[in-house]
Design goal:
The structure is a single chain. It contains no helices and 22 strands. It is an all-beta fold. The protein has a seven-stranded mixed β-sheet with strand order 1-20-17-22-15-13-14, with no helix packed on it. A seven-stranded antiparallel β-sheet has the order 2-3-4-11-6-9-12, with no helix packed on it. A four-stranded antiparallel β-sheet has the order 5-10-7-8, with no helix packed on it. The protein is globular and about 45 Å long.
């Protein structure tokens, strides 16, 4: 079963310094038909204006992933981490028993464009943790593992049974992915166009996949996407 979540049907919010699209109910956007997909609770595509950002705020018992597309993001948290995240890097925080943090676009002229992702944790009230890695962008046509409960190949740990992959495809390339029994896939298209098992996708679209033997992913353009393999 394939269920397309078109970009244009996502929730939308805009204030003076932030423009955001919500795949699932978040903040003032509520849709009982789009609350989550398995343990995937939030996927927000955000554009943060220069010299603006989220002031210090709390989180607990949530796995929070930040995926940079364009620009920079300055991060500071109660664990003592003071970092800057760039395209080609991924940040993962286990909020666990509780943290506070802030996120800020440090540029005075350029937008910051990112996906912020929340997953419901497998275990509550763990010790909070922070990880940030630079992943290999030089593998077009291949799925690169970014985060996992059983990390390997340089991926970060995440407190949930999920494998998060990233891929870039150039025109004419194809990727195949086999689904394990009982698991589901959420495919978020970041850039370009895709064909997934005959379903056409545009940038910003997502595809929820269950009860399929596998995926055949192709493109006639250049495309970038995230793939979540979820229990």
């Amino acid at each position: 079963m394939l269920r397309l979540r078109p970009s244009k049907e996502r929730g939308y919010n805009k204030i003076d310094w932030l423009e955001s699209y919500h795949s699932f109910s978040f903040g003032s956007y509520f849709d009982p038909n789009h609350m989550n997909f398995r343990s995937l609770r939030v996927i927000n595509e955000d554009w943060i204006q220069p010299s603006s950002g989220f002031p210090t705020h709390p989180h607990d018992n949530m796995e929070i992933i930040t995926y940079l597309i364009e620009g920079r993001l300055a991060h500071k948290d109660s664990m003592g981490n003071v970092e800057e995240i760039l395209p080609g890097e991924i940040q993962c925080m286990s909020a666990g028993s509780g943290i506070t943090h802030s996120e800020f676009n440090p540029s005075d002229k350029d937008l910051t464009h990112l996906y912020q992702i929340w997953l419901i944790p497998a275990e509550k009230n763990i010790k909070p943790g922070y990880q940030q890695i630079r992943y290999d962008q030089a593998q077009p046509g291949h799925l690169v593992l970014l985060a996992s409960q059983a990390p390997r190949d340089g991926a970060v740990f995440i407190n949930q049974d999920v494998d998060l992959y990233r891929a870039e495809l150039t025109q004419g390339q194809e990727v195949k992915f086999d689904l394990r029994p009982g698991r589901g896939i959420w495919l978020q298209l970041v850039k370009g166009e895709l064909d997934v098992n005959g379903e056409a996708m545009q940038a910003g679209d997502a595809l929820a996949v269950e009860d399929e033997p596998g995926l055949v992913i192709t493109t006639d353009s250049n495309a970038e996407f995230l793939l979540f393999d979820l229990v």
